[in-house]
Amino acid sequence: xxxxxxxxxxxxxxxxxxxxxxxxxxxxxxxxxxxxxxxxxxxxxxxxxxxxxxxxxxxxxxxxxxxxxxxxxxxxxxxxxxxxxxxxxxxxxxxxxxxxxxxxxxxxxxxxxxxxxxxxxxxxxxxxxxxxxxx
Length: 135
Known about the structure:
Elements: E1 7-15, H1 17-23, H2 28-36, E2 40-46, E3 49-55, E4 61-66, E5 71-75, E6 81-90, E7 93-99, E8 106-112, E9 115-122, E10 125-133
Antiparallel strand pairs: 1-2, 1-10, 2-3, 3-4, 5-6, 6-7, 7-8, 8-9, 9-10
Helix pairs in contact: 1-2
């Protein structure tokens, strides 16, 4: 049985965000701004339904989905793209595949103790963020 990811998580660290954003064709000014942000994550996990809210001082991004069901994701606030997105479990990791213009686009979340990890991929770039559970 997969873990329940419900909780509020504060940003701890990130690696390789600039190169990840460059792979998504984000302009240099926006990349620099995003690299300065320290987003929080709020996850509401009820059965197969999940809401993942990424909270920043610039803008929030909300994913509301059912695990295992493909949907059209509007990534306009991120990079102006739309993807066919499917989120599923691979063991204890929540894995997202985003099919669109960019190859190898997606992410995975997993817990290690009270820390939430997020590994994002696009093309050949990988960015890892770490969050600490606070409630």
